[in-house]
Amino acid sequence: MAEPFSLLLTVYAGDRADYVRDAFHSAVDAQTRRPEQVVLVQDGPVPAELEACLAEVRAASPVDVAFLRLERNGGLGVALDQGLAASRHDIVARMDADDIAMPQRFAVQLPVIEYGADLVGAGMLEFGADRGDIVGRRTPVSEPGDIARYARLHDPFNHPTVVYRRRAVIAAGGYGDLPLMEDYWLFARMIAAGATVVNLTEPLVYYRVGDGAYERRGGVALLRAELRLQRELLRGGFTTRAQYVRNVGVRGGYRLTPAWIRRPLYRRFVAPRGARNVPAEGRRER
What we know:
Elements: E1 5-11, H1 17-27, E2 37-43, H2 48-60, E3 64-70, H3 76-86, E4 91-95, E5 100-101, H4 105-114, E6 119-127, E7 134-138, H5 144-150, E8 163-165, H6 166-171, H7 182-192, E9 197-208, H8 220-235, H9 241-255, H10 259-270
Parallel strand pairs: 1-2, 1-4, 2-3, 6-9
Antiparallel strand pairs: 4-8, 5-9, 6-7, 6-8
């Protein structure tokens, strides 16, 4: 039986109005199976153009929109936890504010959740100037056992593609306060708690990428976030001491390498298996 679901979309000052408009349209108007509710979270003050865009998409939306305006920018994890609290439905689909959902995305993913999964992700196609400019593909590991093993070193899900049971996310503690690593930390806790997790290798989202990607993947702030994540994974028993040492060496060391070296290292050691990855311009992620 088809269940209703909410779409969770967050925006902040660094997002572009035209990208937000396209993302919203692709995940709502253009879907063959639309959400029953959109939870739109504005994470702190935004420029006037973006504020006007948010008013426009809310007014034109064919489905109900719950709009949350947070007074200050608290980060992605805080915004997502606020959005989850405002979601009317147990099934929640994530969407990033600068990506484009393929029209069949929810029609493909929702049955997997309805048949018993707590969390389902999918593949992505990376694009540059427009969707005709495909520059890469992220193909995640798909089987639950493989996902659990893979998660000891890598984030096993493409966060912009996930759909999950709200109750399973809340049972794991929500996104929490681990800036820049909130999604990986959540997925690890869900796996550790016994959540049923699945990845579809089929690409269902167009993922926007830009210049300067590998420069943004390194630096002291990301190193600190990485080290905190690894401590949390070890403290929670998700990784062993040996895995912790390996992860700090591989993932932590990667953050301090020059950008021209970071690209091949990212593809070999950090990115999802089978992927050709570059991160997106202006995004709040690792």
